[in-house]
Amino acid sequence: MKHDADFPRPPKQLDILGVPVADATTRQAVDWLLIGGARTVNFLNAHCANVRARDPQYAAALRRTDLILPDGIGVELAARMTGHHLTENLNGTDFTPELLRAAAAQGRSVFLFGGTPGTAEAAARHLAFVIPGLQIAGTRDGFAGAADPQEVVADINGSGADIVLVALGVPMQELWIDRYARDLNASLILGVGAFLDFMAGNVQRAPKIVRAAKMEWVWRLAIEPRRLAKRYLLGNFQFMARAARDALRKGAGDAVLKRGFDLIVSSALLLVIAPIFLAVSTLIKAESKGPVLYRQTRIGRNGTPFKIFKFRSMHTDAETRMAELRESSDRSGVCFKSRHDPRITRIGRVLRRFSIDELPQLLNVFKGDMSLVGPRPGLPSEVAAYPSRAMERLNARPGITGLWQVSGRADIGFDKMVDMDVAYVRSRSFLLDLLLLTLTARAVLSGRGAY
Q1: How wide is the angle at C-alpha 398 spanned by C-alphas 248 and 207, nearest 5°?
Q2: In this structure, are residues 42 and 159 in contact, taking their beta carbons and an 8 Å threshold?
Q3: Which GO terms describe its molecular function (predicted)?
Q4: For 164-182, what is the mean pLDDT?
Q5: How far apart are CA 95 and CA 39, in angstroms?
Q6: What pLDDT score does 8 carry?
Q7: Cα dihedral sign for 42, 44, 48, 53?
Q8: Does residue 216 lie in a domain region?
């Protein structure tokens, strides 16, 4: 006999612009849905939030939804503006296949409803191929096939489907689910937007590196500029303005100002210095084999790990050679720094001298893992060795620059660096950030401590 502790627990929820959004991993959400924890499921992204603000019927349909999942970088940024961090981005295109794999393992069937004529059938063939054992109970398009709702309901019920995917687009699919879910026999009904188009191959997904950087919206805008320009350019601005107002209402004023400044400056700089990115990438590739960007796990705000981006300034065997160089550190304390580190490439020394290797961290700032100003993020091994007083560094979002950087960088010992960072955390303000950014230019030009 199973005890209550053996069953999946309902996902935690965060209030994002007045919408209760699930804060969970994919596995937690899938397990909860498949035990019947929720019957109707929709997703919330920036576009959905904008539609909700002007469409009271859609807003009401969302309120009656059993579970709302977070979709995209916009919702994540809105959460961070109020001091929260979503566990995972549960966008429909990645989440739904995981749900269907688990459903297939349990012998459950799915009905695909929506898309242009032929799309649901093509999506069904693809899903049956990539998810062995998945039972497709039936398909129906979202045009002529959706003309008679009662006929649609009868068709779905007649198929015996356990799960129904409704892909009619926002807000039509949410309104349809809200109106007809009670007439369906299926145990789970999801509004999945463009999912069927992706599965059918009608719309190409962004490359993995673009998705990892959480910039898939830029890819979709480039693919369909005429259709999506208003949604992503004007719409994203409207969404961020709403998120800022919501954060201010919740008492996160200075944090909103800081995050808004980070977003504006990082996005502007990424556009302006794109030619520099290209030139540096070419030089790195010309000198040594290996990736242009170096990704490393660092510890961010409240101890949350994230992947930091840098231009690669070392040879690819740098990590394996660390042990033999540990004793040659020029800095006392936990953090390793060597003025004559033999692992650094020739172009890498130039990049470090002028802090050019740090420029890709503007992507981290845009994503919200980092800020323009804050304590430098430590390695997991370094944070594990922190004395108790150093843990206060983790109370702020880590930054590209900060008090330590403008005071000498690697010439500053660990203990003094901790004192500086703790002082910043305790007295941080937007005006202090502006002052430190001004001083950063002088520190970069002087090159002091840059090695």
Answers
A1: 90
A2: no
A3: phosphotransferase activity, for other substituted phosphate groups
A4: 98
A5: 16
A6: 79
A7: positive
A8: no
Do 309 and 415 belong together in one domain?
A: yes
CB 147 within 8 A of CB 87: no
Alpha helices in 106-183 (DSSP H): 119-130, 149-159, 172-180
Are 143 and 278 members of one domain? no
DSSP-based three-state secondary structure for 238 = helix
Residue 146: how many other CB atoms lie within 10 Å: 18
Cβ distance 259 to 80 under 8 Å?
A: yes
Q: Quote the CA–CA distance of 154 and 354 in Å, as a whole number.
A: 68
Cβ atoms 223, 205 nearer than 8 A: no
Residue 230 lies inside a defined structural domain of this protein: no
Alpha carbon distance 174, 182 (integer Å)? 13
CA 116, CA 197: separation in Å to the nearest integer?
9
State how far the Cα of 311 lies from the Cα of 432, in Å rounded to an integer.
28
With b for 16 or more beta-carbon neighbours within 10 A and e for fewer, the 372-395 pattern comes to: bbbbbbbbeebbeebeeebebbbe
Task: Please give the residue range of the domain that contains residue 382.
Answer: 253-446
Residue 229, domain member (yes or no): no
Task: Tell me how long the chain is.
Answer: 451
Determine the 3-state secondary structure of 343 from DSSP: coil
Tell which residue, 7, 14, 79, 24, has the closest CA to residue 46. Answer: 79
Co-location of 141 and 263 in the same domain: no
Give, as one character, the DSSP assignment of residue 358: G
Tens digit of each residue's pLDDT (9 = 90 or more) over 320-359: 666 565 555 544 555 555 566 777 888 988 888 888 999 9
Q: In whole angstroms, what is the distance from residue 141 CA to residue 202 CA?
A: 14
- From residue 396, how far is each of 76, 258, 376, 390, 428 by CA, in Å? 17, 12, 10, 12, 9
Domain boundary among 185, 200, 215: 200
For the chain, how many structural domains are there in total? 2
For residues 284 and 167, membership in a common domain is answered with no
User: Does the predicted TM-score (pTM) go above 0.70?
Assistant: no
Sheet with 109-114, side-by-side order of all strands: 67-70, 40-44, 188-191, 163-167, 109-114, 135-140
